[in-house]
Structure formats: structure tokens, C-alpha cells
Protein 1
Amino acid sequence: MALAFDEFGRPFIIIKEQEQKTRLRGVDAQKSNISTGKAVARILCTSLGPKGMDKMLQSPDGDVTSRLRIGDGTTGVVVMAGALLEQAEKLLERGIHPIRIAEGYEMASRIAVDHLECIVQKFEFGVTNIEPLIQMCMTTLSSKIVNRCKRSLAEIAVKPVLAVADLERKDVNLDLFKVEGKVGGNNQNVKFVLEDVGANLVICQWGFYDEANHLLMHRNLPAVRWVGGVELELIAIATGGRIVPRFQELTPEKLGKAGLVREKSFGTTKDRMIYIEHCANSRAVTIMVVGNKMMVEETKRSIHDALCVARNLIRNNYIVYDGGSAEISCSIAVEAAADKFPGVEQYAIRAFADALDAIPMALAENSGLQPIETLSAVKSHQIKENNPCRGIDCNNTGTNDTHEQNVFEALIGKQQQVLLATQVVKMILKIDDVISPSEY
Ligand code: ADP
């Protein structure tokens, strides 16, 4: 096997004939990819929803790397994609071409996304009324391992997001946020307090050459080297400084400003971290998580999800009721629309409607309810009352009205989930040649 490049510099792999162990073409290639996708979805299916089970990932060397609990809509996307693949398999069996399936799925996804806009509710909040946003983030955090501190984590996410949000333009730049983690806990501060004017701290992405090192030491100037590019940009934004390629290009107006820079070490580890505080421009935020390895990683992911929820609602403050109710409502709408398509796509559109049902069924099953019975009952309830809020009562609250249960999702989040699942499946369906070299 050799790596080569075409005339545009794009890499490709040349496999010698004798190395070629398996080659799957056409429907066989699609079926093989479909079964891989379905296997991933099957694993994640049982972790969907508030009663879903966590997954433990073990690396080949035996290290437990993380518990899989995604929580930003990703599990839902995978479950939906798995259901779309399962339906596609049946359509392939019936001789429908994968491209026609992909086209039908695309049409159905547009029907579902448009339908979501017909069942929205407005979500009111503001700078002086942040409680609804906090509540929304708390809902997201409920399904996480860190749910015991969901209130404080939700506040940690919402307050800085609102501080940097441009509510007029309905935008938040999440690049201004960095969620950092450190294993350990004890703090020992080594302080260097900044003076008022002149460069009294140098921060560099790379190392310093000898002459610079000598100069810095001679002037007694503290310096930090090997700082990541992203971090350097955030520091520049926060302090109002400019990144310069050479010392010679430094001028007073390019200097950034911060009130305090201190170094903190973490417990028994030798890790240290530089804190840059009281910056000129507080629009760059670093959220620092300290704890044991697994908790740090889980908390970082959870805060990231909460930040995304808050960002989505600032961009567009419409919500749809969830707990499977939005998918059921879309499934009804897509099913009804299928009849209007005269061609073969209508099979794929109906299949899409069936795939949408996979989410409420998984939620029901994970909550100990009978999936098919529960789905049929809720669906007929929705149709009878023309009420898109009927969903799955995962927490046994006594009502399947997700409005009353207060379970909802940002409209754009739900739309993205539907679109993403569709795109992933379309990509898989368009692969018709799988070559696996013998090394694998
Ligand atoms: P994801 O990674 O997709 O966000 P989660 O495990 O967080 O996965 O599950 C999200 C799903 O669980 C959504 O369909 C959401 O509507 C549903 N859900 C969350 N909380 C509740 C609840 N209290 N009652 C019913 N459904 C819920």
C-alpha cells in the first residue's frame, strides 16, 4: 500500500492487487456500511433520555477512558441515523436504488424541518430575566453524571454567555469560551503582579531563541513559552493586545492589559497553569474545571453542552416540546406528505416517518415502558387532539404532556439533529465501493 498525491495535491492510497483482501461493491458495500452504522446506533440507543444507561469505554491498554453520555443531541442523531439506515436496508432489499433513497430522505427531512417551525413556542428571557435560560440548561444537565451540581453549572454557563452575547444581533461567539480542565486541586500561588505600563510579561507561542532568553533574563522580564495558538488568540482578545511575530514589532499600543497574572499549581501533579485576570476586555472567558480525571472530562463536556443550549436560544428563542413528542409530530406530518409524491421517493419518505418513531420508542424502552404500545397510544393521542406536545413520560410524572413536564429543546437544535442524521445517512448510502487492504 502506498500513499500518493494527485495533481491538486490531494492524497490517495494505492493498494497492490495481491494486498487487496476484500472489496465490496454496489449493494454489498452499502449493506456492509449500513450494518456498521446500525451497530453503533444499537450501542447508543440504550443511553438515550433521562433514564438511559451510561456506557464505559475501555482503551486497548485497559484504561477506562470515559463514560459515554453525550447530551447535546448527538445520541438522538445517532439513534435516528441508525433507524434511517435500518429502513434503507429494507428499501435496498426491495430493489430501490440508494440514490433514490437518499433523495427521498432529503425531501422528508425538509418536510420535518419545516413542520418543526409550525409547532414552536416562544421562549422568553432577557438579561434581567435569566432564570428561564438557567432552567433550560439544567434540563440538559439532568441526564449527566454531574447532575448533582446542575444549578451551579447552568449558572456558570449562562452568565458568561449572556455577558459576551450580542442580543441585538442574536449572536454569541463560542470561540470566546474555553473550557479547561486540570486534574488535582490544591492551589499554591506564585504571583507576579503587573506594573502599570510597558511590557512586563511576554507570552509566546513558541520557545525563545538564546539571545531573547538572555535579554528577558537580563531585564528580569517573566515570560511564558509554548502557549497554544488558540489560547494565545484568546489572551489577545481578552487583554486587548496584538500578536506580533517579532519582538522588534512591539509598540506600546500593541500591548495587552491585565490586572493580575498568577501561576497556580495543581495538587500532587507537576502541572501548573497561568491565570490572567482582570483583563481589559472580559469578552473572552475561560472556565476552569478542577477535579479527578473522569469528572473533569465529564464536567467539561457538560458545560460545553449547556453553553450550546444557551447559544442556540440566544440565536433563535423558539423551542419545540420534546421527550419524543416533536419526532412523533414530524412523523405524522411526513407520513401524510408521502402520498403526495408520485414517484418511488414516497417509499423513502414513509420510511423516514417510521425512522422518526425510533426516538420515542427508545425513550419509552429505556424508561421501562413497552415501546410499540406506548408509541401507538401517544401517536393516536396526538392525532385525536391535534396536540404536538404528547410525548413519552420517561420520569413517570403521570402525564405524557411534555409542555406540562417542561421538557423542551431549542428549535434550531432539533432541526439540526434531523438534518445531521439525514446527511450522515445520505453520505453512507452514496458509498458504493469499499476496499479493505490486507493489513486491516
Ligand atoms: P442526547 O445526546 O441526544 O441529548 P440524552 O441522553 O440527553 O441524549 O437524551 C435526549 C432525549 O431525551 C431527547 O429526546 C429528550 O427529549 C429526552 N428527554 C430528556 N429529558 C426528558 C424527560 N424528563 N422526559 C422525557 N424525555 C426526556
Protein 2
Amino acid sequence: MSRSVTVIGLGPMGQAMAAAYLDQGYDVTVWNRTPSRADALVARGAHLAASPEDALRANELVVLSLIDYPAMYATLKGAEDAVAGRVLVNLSSDTPEQARAAARWAEELGGTHLTGGVLSPPPTIGSPDMSTFYSGPRTAYDTHREALEVITGKTDFRGEDPGLAALMYQLNMVVFWPAMLAYWQAVALAGAHGIKAADIAPYVTENYAGMGQFIDFYAARIDAGDHTGDVDRLSMGVASMEHVVHTNADAGVDTAFPQAVLDAFRRGADAGFGADSFSSVLKLMKK
Ligand code: NDP
């Protein structure tokens, strides 16, 4: 394989990816809507393409790291002829449906689209410890796997459906953003009492570290359709979340987020699941 790659999109992620390729001695061509973001990379030997079309034509392997898929279409507008023969490895995040549509779009243009779902932040790019989801044509993945591992560590190929890597990414985002918002809620509540974020950090960290055992416990039961309220009852969850809402309100902290959790628990109790496990709210989530 030629050790040569194009990186389109130089936000914090794209910059880290292009830098990781340079570290490994790859010949790197870059393009970004705002050209100045390429300055440090060019100083290290990267080539700044004059246009998105030139960036595509420079290499068979083209890594895209943009804010979303519409940014890819906006970037490659007018350069569609140059997609033929390229393997577009799209590490921008978006929905599974966007990934499937992009795969069809690339195929119609004679190119190949491989979807990636990167979970790790920029400082970890290039580390062998990180793991990244991929899906799409297996042959394209196998051909470029070594080059992909340079930027995204261990690669986790989920299958030929281009939407699968995006789905796995979204599953993790469903957990990540609300988990972080829960943390910020705790920071706001602590702050209202003069307690600093750093002071509660060890306790919050321990709380999140213990989540694994809850997840394993509930996963087995949920898959077995078991929502028995032998260790936790939804009515207990309602009472507990009422305490959380009131504790925040009493401290003058916004309650929108805990109130949303309380509302979900109350809907479950109103539906008759009060004596069951709080996992029974799952039954209300499926449409
Ligand atoms: P951003 O998500 O902020 O994306 C920045 C890039 O998108 C820049 O190259 C920017 O160009 C380009 N862009 C934005 N809008 C347009 C547009 N309309 N047309 C053309 N280009 C556009 O930066 P990140 O590097 O943080 O993220 C890249 C991807 O990686 C995202 O999909 C993100 O969800 C994902 N990701 C990010 C992580 C992180 O911790 N940062 C972690 C895991 C995944 P310009 O420089 O000109 O503004």
C-alpha cells in the first residue's frame, strides 16, 4: 500500500489525524474550508491542495473529518467527478440514514464510502488504545485497515451496512451527552453550595465507574424481558427523582434535566409499572 493520504476537514480531529499521519511518515495532502487551519501541518510537510477536487485527485484514500455529512456535500460540490476511484473514509458524525445515503451517492459517482464512528477526543488520535467503528464495503476496509489504524487505533468493523458504524456511534452519544449533562447538573448544584467541581470529581468518577455493574445486571434482565422489581422499584425511582428535583429547585438551580427524568419515571408509574423495576420505562420508549 502506498503511504499516502488526503485529509479533508481540519477541525481539532482532522488536524490530529493529519498530524498522526505525518508522524508515521505518510505523504499527506490536506484541504479545509478555512485554509489557515492547515498552517501548522504545512509547516511540517503536508501539501495544501488548491481545491477540494485537487485534494480528491491527490490520493485514493481520502479521510473526511467534518462537522456533519451536509458539510461533505458542501465541500465536494463541483468536485463530484473526482470521487470516482476514491475511497472516502467518512469520520464525520451523523445519522445512520445520512451514512447510507452518502454510500449510495459515492457509489453512483464511481467511488467507495466507508463510514467511521470515532468515539475518542483529539488528544487520543493515533493512540493504539482507542477504538473506532467502521462499516461499509469489507474489501475497502481490509485494503486500508493499516492506514486507518494509524489515526483511529483498534478498528471495529461492524458489517457491510454503511449505517452500522454511525448507529454504534450514536448509541454511544445517546449515553455520553446526557451523562455529561448529569455531571454538569451536579457541578451546578455543588456550586450553589460553594463546593467546587474538583471537590466532587472523585465522587462523580466513582459513581460513573460503578455504572458498569448496573449495565451488566440490567442488560441480562432486559434481554430476558425481566423487569421484576425485586431490587429496585419504579415508585422508588419516582420518589428519589422528586428529591433530586426539589434539592436543585431549593438551591436555585435549573431543574429542566432532572424534571425530564422524573417525568419519564412518572409516565411509567402512571402506566402501572410502579411496583416493577425502573427498567420498565423501556416499555414506554418503543414506538
Ligand atoms: P467540528 O465538528 O467543529 O468540525 C470542524 C470541521 O468541519 C472544520 O473542518 C470545518 O471547517 C468544517 N465545516 C463545518 N461546517 C462546514 C461547512 N458548512 N462546509 C464545509 N466545512 C464545514 O470539529 P471536530 O474536528 O471536533 O469534529 C470533526 C468530527 O469528528 C465531527 O463530526 C465530530 O462529531 C466528530 N468527533 C469529534 C470529537 C471531538 O472530541 N472533537 C470526538 C469524536 C468525534 P472550518 O475550519 O472552515 O470551519
